Amino acid sequence: MREGQTAVIHRADYRPPAFWIDSVELCFDLDPQKTRVLNRMRLRRNPSMPAEALRLHGEELNLARVLVNGQGASFKLEDSHLVLENLPEGHEPFDLEVFTTCAPAKNTKLMGLYVSNDSFFTQCEAEGFRRITYFLDRPDVMATYSVLIRADKAKYPVLLSNGNLVEQGELDAGRHYARWVDPHRKPSYLFALVAGSLVAREQRITTRGGKDHLLQVYVRPGDLDKTEHAMNSLMASIAWDEARFGLPLDLERFMIVATSDFNMGAMENKGLNIFNTKYVLASQATATDVDYANIESVVGHEYFHNWTGNRVTCRDWFQLSLKEGLTVFRDQEFSQDLAGEPSARAVRRIEDVRVLRTAQFPEDAGPMAHPVRPDQYLEINNFYTVTIYEKGAELVRMMQTLVGREGFARGMKLYFERHDGQAVTCDDFAQAIADANPDSPLARLLPQFKRWYSQAGTPRLSARSRWDAASGTYSLTLSQSCAPTPGQPVKEPFVIPVQLGLLDASGAALSNGLHVLTQESETLTMSGLSSEPVPSILRGFSAPVCLDYPYTDAQLLLLLAHDTDPFNRWEAAQRLALHRALQAVRDSGHVELDAPFIEAMRGVLRHPQLDAAFKELVLTLPSETYIAEQLEVVDPQRIHAVREAMRQQLATALRHDWEWAYEAHHDTGAYRPDPRSTGRRALAGLALTHLCLAARLSGDPVWPGKTLQRFKDAANMTDRFNALSALVTSGHPLAAQALDRFHGQFKDDALVLDKWFALQAGAPDRGGNILPLVKQLMQHPDFNIRNPNRARSLVFSYCSANPGAFHRTDAAGYVFWSDRVIELDAINPQVAARLARALDRWRRLVEPCRSAAREAIARVAAKPDLSNDVREVVTRALAD
């Protein structure tokens, strides 16, 4: 169902298609205003389904001709479908030809075929192919594709599509053509076409299997020098997948193309990945360490889809996590394996968990909560969520925990042996992993484990201990529960792998092991102990749950100082900070950091053995969003004030330690984005931020002056942006000078300007100054709301990532939000729907914010011509 239709799609209603499409021949005559698409398909009836009419999906197409077996055919257009009833009987194949035109230059939704910077691009996932031609646009219809592209050679010298280039040549009137053939069957959402004036970095490789391949990264002229890291990441991905899982590159060539107008991060179209420039372009002068890490991860993610998503795809969109959750897990494992050292691997794991807890846990507790495998949707684009991706990855990680790393590799091997070339379900994947490991806990508990796919919400793992000094017996009772979510008032017990360790009073390790919790409550008993141990629960974050255990400060300080599990060491510091923040928010709003906490943070900062990257994570306070999720009633401005006060006190109390940290870590030598160097830059940047904050409080001009000089002299974007951020977030007057200089230096680099907009929109609010600044920046000549990256950099940074500034008591932030959602919905519904999610958690806000937020949501919902994308979000937000 598309625009103007409100029918909910249910997983239980899945039916195989009445027809199969075996092969597709597409011919494109490209023109921005009127592109002609000739689609020749070979179809056959599905013998397992009753005879019925053929209903092809189509949107915003001009239909010119329909032929069946070369003859004119009767048809009708009905509810965005091309309906053909009088088709050949029996199950023999027949040919269907459909000729249509479309207008790519007018396509602001960036779905289907569109124009960006005078080049043609496509985005077909989830349902964009129907905006190119009439088709059975569903993932279980898999066909081979042959694509002929014709275009003006001067304007569009590069013509690309999926698979292998089999023919190219010249045509009359300055035009040329290229023919591409993809030998692998694929669903329509993996189709891709690119045409434009592009240049490519090329690399020829020989894989472990001895086959030669051509790798290409296409970008606009002038950006070629920023593609080395993307190419290196692609080569590393290919090598890793073949070494870790035995999965080789299966095409003669593999191409990546970057565009600045893209709704998503990237798209795994078979052999022709189309990327947002944000995840391709990098040089030390324009990209931060975070950008480098993200490029490596996203390039890996899209390449890994070549097998987990392309060779084996989803039967229907309810199975989206089959490919996305699995592939996020694979890209996380890839990044951890490339990190190498255990401490660097731990840093990557902590960063992944922070995303899960600050983005996915709130989603699980809000109106858009849904299972990893949803039961229904109105608009599938709304279900490209952190639940499908990041929580889905945690489900796969738990499978690996339950069967072991080698057992998981066996399961993957069996999965491809069974399902290569098929469209399958999450059940098929889980069954393969279990069947390959028949003696594992997963095989024994598989039906119960699959509740993770069907039940929404974040389970709460409650742990309570009992110590009997007389007998030296320690008991730990683990209990699980899960709060109701929309449509699911009651939850059955999950399978929860709990990695558990015990430390004695000196911090020495007593035990370490895995317990698999399957009941509502279970008690573990350990005897023969000489003193009460301290439990280290959920090591490595072994399950995506909220842990409830009444740790004392003394226990947390011991874990922080001695736990051998890096995740729980970091978690101990987070809990120490969180306890203090929550107490202050719940009480008067006043916070005073105590000496033991300050000394613990000093001990971490000065620790001679700890990694710099790990120190930076420990010394970074829990986010305002994460603090808010621990509260029943949320006052965003009070949370912001408390966290800012904690930052200020850390800055002042540890001033000399921050000076030491900066001086000891700011020089990283020649730029390299390796874990050690990035960790040192991260810690130096955090130190600089605290030094500028302390200087603003004391009126000391020295460190702001040093920071400005650091900003001017920096040899890489990480150091430059860290210095700029330190000035902006501390609210120092020198920030204005630095911002002007930064804009002047990078005004012609779109991705760097995105950082400039985002930094200002996300800065701490002081007296309500951020919203007027955001409105002013919307009038800036470099702002364009039609570009998704630019809209995200300014509007999203304010509405979704700056709660202290957004949730104003005068409701001005909510009025701004509603205006922008409505404005964006008319341009690009996908982007608008993501912005609409900023008020998912409005019911927990303190008054008057709560009432004002509801009024703003209702204002959006009252618009009669809303897209399904936005309508679903706001309707669910308002539902009782």
UniProtKB/TrEMBL annotation:
<keyword id="KW-0862">Zinc</keyword>
<keyword id="KW-0482">Metalloprotease</keyword>
<keyword id="KW-0645">Protease</keyword>
<dbReference type="InterPro" id="IPR045357">
    <property type="entry name" value="Aminopeptidase_N-like_N"/>
</dbReference>
<dbReference type="GO" id="GO:0006508">
    <property type="term" value="P:proteolysis"/>
</dbReference>
<dbReference type="Pfam" id="PF17432">
    <property type="entry name" value="DUF3458_C"/>
</dbReference>
<feature type="domain" description="Aminopeptidase N-like N-terminal">
    <location>
        <begin position="31"/>
        <end position="190"/>
    </location>
</feature>
<dbReference type="Pfam" id="PF11940">
    <property type="entry name" value="DUF3458"/>
</dbReference>
<dbReference type="GO" id="GO:0016285">
    <property type="term" value="F:alanyl aminopeptidase activity"/>
</dbReference>
<feature type="domain" description="Peptidase M1 membrane alanine aminopeptidase">
    <location>
        <begin position="230"/>
        <end position="437"/>
    </location>
</feature>
<dbReference type="InterPro" id="IPR012779">
    <property type="entry name" value="Peptidase_M1_pepN"/>
</dbReference>
<dbReference type="InterPro" id="IPR027268">
    <property type="entry name" value="Peptidase_M4/M1_CTD_sf"/>
</dbReference>
<dbReference type="InterPro" id="IPR037144">
    <property type="entry name" value="Peptidase_M1_pepN_C_sf"/>
</dbReference>
<keyword id="KW-0031">Aminopeptidase</keyword>
<dbReference type="InterPro" id="IPR014782">
    <property type="entry name" value="Peptidase_M1_dom"/>
</dbReference>
<dbReference type="InterPro" id="IPR001930">
    <property type="entry name" value="Peptidase_M1"/>
</dbReference>
<dbReference type="InterPro" id="IPR024601">
    <property type="entry name" value="Peptidase_M1_pepN_C"/>
</dbReference>
<protein>
    <recommendedName>
        <fullName>Aminopeptidase N</fullName>
        <ecNumber>3.4.11.2</ecNumber>
    </recommendedName>
</protein>
<feature type="domain" description="Peptidase M1 alanyl aminopeptidase Ig-like fold">
    <location>
        <begin position="457"/>
        <end position="549"/>
    </location>
</feature>
<dbReference type="InterPro" id="IPR042097">
    <property type="entry name" value="Aminopeptidase_N-like_N_sf"/>
</dbReference>
<dbReference type="InterPro" id="IPR035414">
    <property type="entry name" value="Peptidase_M1_pepN_Ig-like"/>
</dbReference>
<comment type="similarity">
    <text>Belongs to the peptidase M1 family.</text>
</comment>
<feature type="domain" description="Peptidase M1 alanyl aminopeptidase C-terminal">
    <location>
        <begin position="553"/>
        <end position="879"/>
    </location>
</feature>
<dbReference type="GO" id="GO:0008270">
    <property type="term" value="F:zinc ion binding"/>
</dbReference>
<dbReference type="InterPro" id="IPR038438">
    <property type="entry name" value="PepN_Ig-like_sf"/>
</dbReference>
<keyword id="KW-0479">Metal-binding</keyword>
<dbReference type="Pfam" id="PF01433">
    <property type="entry name" value="Peptidase_M1"/>
</dbReference>
<dbReference type="GO" id="GO:0008237">
    <property type="term" value="F:metallopeptidase activity"/>
</dbReference>
<dbReference type="Pfam" id="PF17900">
    <property type="entry name" value="Peptidase_M1_N"/>
</dbReference>
<keyword id="KW-0378">Hydrolase</keyword>
